Amino acid sequence: MTSLPYRDKPSDSNHGRGDEDDEEEEEVDATSYKHDKDAVLFAIDVSESMLTKPAETDEKKPDASLSPTVAALKCAYALMQQRIISNPNDMMGILLFGTEKSRFQDGDAETGRGGLQYPHCYLLTDLDVPAAADVKQLRTLVEDEEEAANLLVASKEEVSMANMLFCANQIFTTKAPNFSSRRLFLVTDNDYPHTSSRDARNSAAVRAKDLYDLGVTIELFPISHPDRGYTFDRSKFYNDIVYSATPSDPDAPAPLAADIKPASSTARDGISLLQSLLSSVASRSAPRRALISNLPFEIGPGLKISVKCFILLKRQEPKRTTYVYLPPDSDKAQIAVGSSTLVADDTARSVEKTEVRTAYKFGGETISFTEEEIAKIKNFGDPVLRVIGFKPLSMLPVWANLQPATYCYPSEDEFVGSTRVFSALHQKLLKDQKMGLAWFIARKNARPTLAAIIPGAESRNEEGEQEVPPGLWIKPLPFADDIRQAPETNLVPAPDTLTDAMRVIVQQLQLPKAIYDPRKYPNPSLQWFYRILQALALEEDLPEKAEDKTLPRWKQIHKRAGPYVVEWGSVLDEQYLVWQRDNDKQIKPQVNGAAKRTKAEPASAGAKAKKVKKEDDEDGVTDAEMRDAYTKDALIQFKVVDLKGWLQGKGQKTMGKKKDLMDAVIAFFETKMDVT
Amino acid sequence: MASKEATVYIVDCGSTMGERSNGRQQTNHDWAMEYIWDKLTSTVANGRKTALAGVVGLRTDGTENLMDGEEDYAHITVLQELGQLLMPQLRKLREELVVSSTEAGDAISALVIAIQMIVATCKKLQYQRRIVLLTDARSAMQADDLGNITAKLKEDNIDLVVLGVDFDDADYGYKEESKDATKAENEAALNQLCEDCNGVFGTLAQAVDELGIPRVKPVKPVPSYRSMLTLGNPEEYETALAIDIERYPKTMRASAQSASKFVIRSDMAAGEATQSTQTMGNGEEAEGAAPNGTNDGLAAVKTARTYLVNDEDAPGGKKDVDRDELSKGYEYGRTAVHISESDQNVTLYETKPGFDIIGFVDKNQYERYLDMSRSNLIVTQRGNEKASMALSSLIHALYELESYAVARFVRKEMTEPRIVVLAPNIEPDFECLYDLELPFAEDVRGYRFPPLDRVVTVSGKILKVHRNLPNEELLDAMSELVDSMDLSTLGEEGGEYAVPDETYSPMLHRIAQVIKHRAIHPNEAPPAPYEILTRFSRPPDNLIAKTQRELDRVIKAADVKKVPPKARARRYGRGKEAPKPLSDLDVGALLALDPKRGGGKLKRKIDPQNAIPEFKQLVQRAEDLPDLQDACGQLGAVIEDWVRFSVGDSGYGRAVEGLRVMREEMGEMEEAGAYNDVVKGLREKVLGGALGGERALFWYKVRVGRLGLLLGSECEGGAGEEEGREFLRAK
C-alpha cells in the first residue's frame, strides 16, 4: 500500500505530553472549547463513468487499472489507516452517492427514514473516530471484487446534488457538531450534474451555502478522462459550490495550498489516479494550527509587528500504552478512560484546586508562597520576541541547541504592515547570513529564554512544490547553566598525512547533493511500531522484517571508499609508531602537559599521580597488575576509582560498593580471562 | 559527584558591627549577613549531606568554645558545629547571629577555633576545607603568632577567605577615608596572613555585589555511550573503519527547582498552618510533626486515578474498574488492542548499539534549524592514543573540507535508532565531534506558506510591488538597522556580546533566589530579581542610543499600524457582502427565492435540522435589531429542544455549538443584548430542571466553553465582569 508517513497530530490532547519540558504549566487557549480536531467526510461519486476502468491497462501496474470509484475508496482506505494512528481523535466517514442502494445512519435504519430521505446516498462509514471494524469493512470492499460489485452499482436515476449536500450537512451536524475543522472531500468526474435542470443546480448551490455557513469546507477532487477526451471543467457547476478562503481582491495573495489539479484516470503520465489522489489528499491532510498566534515581535524599541509560530519539526514518538479492560465474559478489549483527582496525602480526602498551594522543599522543610507571589516571581513580562541585536550566523556555536526550533511567519492580525517588515528583515538576514539574538517569552509566565533568530530560505522541488517554507526560526539557546563541561582528554593530534588520507574518504562518501534530506529517512522504529499495531488490530499476520532506510549502504561504502580506508589504516599504523617513538623521548612533558590541565581539579589528583608512575597506562591499573592482585587475593589494595576504571575498560558493570566491584573483578577473571 | 566540603564561617558580631558606616542604610552587620545568609542558604539548597558548614560567632556577648577557659578565647561562641545545615539550624542561627554589646574578641583566636573544628571533623579525609572570616577588624588582634597559623592552614590544606567591612581593595577600587588606626593595622595583618597562606583577601562590598552572579552547578561528565564509531560494516567487510569513542552530554537543560503541591492538613486550622510556615523566628517546630514528614502543617497532594469502562448494565452506562483489573494495550482508533505481557516486546524494533556513519554533507548547506535535540560531544576512549590520533584525522578532514558527517546512532540494544549530524571542533588542546539529532521524515510537517519576496495572486500574477512586500526604502533602512545593531564587538574588551557562558537561566536563579530569601526572611516580600537575570531582556543601552537614527528610519518606512480592536464590527443589511462561491454566484438571491425559507422580507422559520446555517443567513439579511432578536429567539428555542430531547449528553454538542455561533455573531454585530437575553433564559430553564431533568453537565460545558454573557470588554452593551462570572456559576 502506498503509504502516507505516519505522524502524530501537532499536539495531542492526552498523549505525548510531558516530554515538552516544563512548558505547558499554564495557558488555556482562548478557543479551547471548540474541539481542536478535524472531521473529514469523503463523498465519492458512484456513476457508470466512475465505475469504468481505464481502457488501456498495464499489467505491471495494478493500481492503474482501477476504476475511479475504487481508486477513491483505496485512497480513503489509506487515509483512514494513516489517521487512525496519526490523528487518533479525528473523525472520518465515507458517503457514496449515485448508488442504487440507499442507507443513512444506523439509528434511522430502524425507522426506515434514512433511505427515503436521501435516496441514492449510501453512508458506508458513519463519521466517527474509525474502529478496526471500519478499516476491515473498507478493506473488504476494495479488495474483494464480489463485495464491490454488490454495492457499487450506479443508480439509474440521477442523484440530487442538493440532497447529497444536505445529507453531508446532517452528518456533520449530528456527529461532529463542534469540531474546529470539518471538511467534505468530494471525488467526482462529473463536472455538470443536473445538466437540464437549472433549479436543481440552484438548490445545490443553496445547500452548499448552508454547508459553508455551518463551517464545513468543500474540497473538490475532480477527475478527468484524457482517454475519453474529457477534461473536468469547474466553471460549469462546481465554482458555484466551492468557496474560496480568500477575499475577492484579485491582488490578494493566493491561498496557501494551490487548487487541486484534476487527476487523470489514465496512467499514461506514469502516475496512477490513485497516486495522484493520494498526493492531493496528503497535501490537505494536515490542518494547520498556530502554536502561538500573534506573538509580538519587537525588532527595536517602538518597532513592533506580530508573528505566528508553528511547529514544523517535532520528534514523533510511538504511542504510549493505555489501560485496556478485558471483560470476563468477552474477549473484546475496551479502552479504560482514566481520570485523576487530587487527594491529600494524610487523609486521602479529595482536594479542590483552589486549596492547593505550592511550596518548595528546602532544608528538610518547605518554603511556601501564595499564588500571587508565585505569579509575580515567575513573571518576567508579557509574551514577546524582542531582538536585542544581531550577529553573524557564524557566531552561533554548533552545539548551541536544546530542542527543535520554532518556525514563525508574519501575521497582519495585530499590526498592519507586519508582513513587509518581516520580509525586509528576512531578506537582509538571508543575504548577509546574520542572525538575531532575542529575548523570548513564548507564553504568559513561561520561562524566558535567549533565542537565535535564524533565516530560513524557501525551497521547492522540481515540480515547483514548496518543500521548506520561507520564514524565521526561533532557536532557544542554552544558558551557562545548560552547558556541561567537557571530560579530560589526552589529545594525540593527527599528522597531516593521516588527515590527507581521511580527506579522500570523506570526499568519496558525500550524500546526494551533499545535504541531509529528512524525507528520505523514515523512522524505522516508529514505522515498525505502527505496522505491528495495525496488524494486531486488524488481526493480520505480523510482518517479518522491517525496512530500515537509516542503515548505511555498507556495500557502496565498501566499493567506493574501501581501498582508501585500507590506505588510511596503514598510514595510521605507521604514524602511530612514529608518534610512540617520538613520544617516548618527550614522555615527561606530555604527561606533565596533561597534568597541568587537570590541576584545577583536585578530585582527579589521585589519577594524575598514578599516571606519572605508570607511564604506559592511562586507566591506572594494567591487566597484569589486576590479575596479579586477583591471584594473590589482594584486590583490596586498589582504590574504588581504579577498580571502576579497569572494569569499565572491560565493559563490565561498575555499580555498587567496593566489595561489589571486587566481586565483579573476580567474576571477570573466573569466567572471561581464563579463556585467553 | 561533587567532593566533600567543610566550611567554617566566622561572623563578627561585635557592637561596632551595629553601626551604619559610610552612608549605608543597613547596619554593617545586616550587610555582612547578606553575604553569610546567601552562602549558608546555598549550602542548604544543594541538600548534600557531604557539604558541611559550621558557624563561629566572633565578639559575642557570651563565650562557648573548646578553649573557653582561656582569656584569649573569650567572646567567641561556636554557634553551629560542622554538619549538614537544615531549616531548624538556620532558624537557630537567625536568633543567635545578632549584634552583641561587646567590642572584645580576637579574630585570630576565632581562626584557631575554626581550624580546630575542621581538624576534629575532617581528620585526614578527602575534604575541601575552607574558613571564611567576616569582620570589621575594629577590635584588638594578637597578630604576633601568625606564622603558626599560616603553617597549620597550609599543612591541612585549608583555604582562607577574609572579607572585611570597608577594607581597602585596590583591585576592586575601594579605599576608606580616615580609617581608624586599629582597623588599618588589623587590615594589614590579615592581608599579610592571606598572602602567606595563599588565601583570598577582599572587601565586603565586592562580595555582596557578586552575590547576584549566579553560580553554575558543575556536573561531572559521565559518558552516555562508549563503543565504536564505524564507517562501513566491520562484520562484513575488511575495509571498515572503527574508532573507540565515548560520548558525553554537551548541553542539557538545567531546570528550576520544581514546586510541590500541598494542602493545609485537615487537623489544622488554616491560620495555624500559615503561621508555622511563615514564622520561623520562634525556633519552635509545629507541634506533633506530621507523619508524612512535613512539620509545617501542610500535607502533600497526590493524584489518584480512577478508570471507567462502558457497561450497559451499570447506571449511566459506565462502571469503575480497579487498576488491577486492567492490562496494557494501545488504542487503534476506537478499538482497544490488548497486548499480553509476553508480547510487550513485539512492538519494539530490534536494534544493536552502534554509531555508524551514513555519509557526509556540506557544512555550508546545512540548515541550522534542523537541529532537533540537545548536543553531545564525542571524544576517543580514555587513554586510547591510537584512537585519539584516528579520530583527530577525521575531525581535521571534516574541518578542512567544511563538511559534517551524518550517522545512525543506537545508544543501547533495542532503543530507537536516531540520525545525528557530527560537526568537528578543534581547540588548541582539545578536539571533539559535536553531535545533534536530525529529524526523520515523520518529524517534518509539510505546512506551506506564501513566499516572502514576491506575491503570487489569486489570478496567478507574480507581483514584486505589493503592500505585503517591502519597498526599496524599507529594505535599505532595515539593512542599515541590522548592521548598526551588531553585537559582535559589543561585549567586554570588544568581544561578542551575550555569549552563552555569560547568560544565566532567569527562571532557575530567580526561583533559587526567592526560596533562599524566604527561608531567612519569612515575612518579607520576595526581592526584585538580580539585574543580571534580566540584562538580556532588551538591547544594551548604548546600542539603543547609537542606533536611534536607523531605527527611526525603519519605523517611518515600515509604516506599521496597530489594528484597532473593533475594526471588524459589522453592519446591518450585509446580505450583499456575504461570502460568495468562486463563481460569484449570488446565492443570497437564490435563498431569497427559496419558498421554504420564506423569501423576501417575510419572517421565516428556522428549520431545526439546518438551524445554524439558516440562523447565519437570517443574521446576514437582518435589517434592524428586532430582526436579530427574532433570529436569536428562534435559534434559542431550537437549542432548548436539543437539550430537552438529549439522551444523556447526545444533544449537548449541537447545543453548545449553536450557542457559540450565536454568541460570535452577536459579538460581531455589537448586539450583546440579543444574545444575553437568550442565554439568560436558557440558564434559568437548564438549572431549573425545565429541560428534561438534570442538565448540570450541559451547563458545565457552557462554562468551560466560556459561552456565558457577552461582556462589556468584548462588545458594546455587554455585561460586567462580575456579573459574567456569577452567571457561569451553576448555583
What does this structure look like?
The complex is a heterodimer of chains A (676) and B (731). Chain A has 676 residues and is an alpha/beta fold. Chain A folds into 5 domains: 45-284, von Willebrand factor, type A domain (Rossmann fold, 3-Layer(aba) Sandwich); 292-316 and 379-482, Beta Barrel (Ku70, Chain: A, Domain 2); 324-377; 502-584, no CATH class; 587-675. Chain A is built from 19 helices and 21 strands. In chain A, the strands form 5 sheets. Chain A has a 7-stranded mixed β-barrel with strand order 7-8-15-21-18-17-14. In chain A, strand 7 and strand 8 (303-310) form a beta hairpin. In chain A, helix 2 (68-86) runs parallel beside helix 9 and helix 7 (161-175) runs parallel beside helix 8 (198-214). Chain A is globular, with a radius of gyration of 33 Å. By secondary structure, chain B is α+β, with helices and mostly antiparallel strands. In chain B, the strands form 5 sheets. A 7-stranded mixed beta barrel of chain B has the order 7-8-15-18-17-16-14. Chain B has a 6-stranded mixed beta sheet with strand order 3-2-1-4-5-6, sandwiched between helices. Chain B has a 3-stranded antiparallel beta sheet with strand order 9-10-11, with no helix packed on it. In chain B, helix 4 (146-155) links the parallel strand 4 (128-135) and strand 5. Residues 269-294 of chain B have low confidence and may be disordered. At the A-B interface, helix 5, helix 7, helix 8, strand 8 and strand 9 of A face helix 2, strand 8, strand 9, strand 10 and strand 12 of B. Strand 9 (322-325) of chain A pairs antiparallel with strand 12 of chain B.
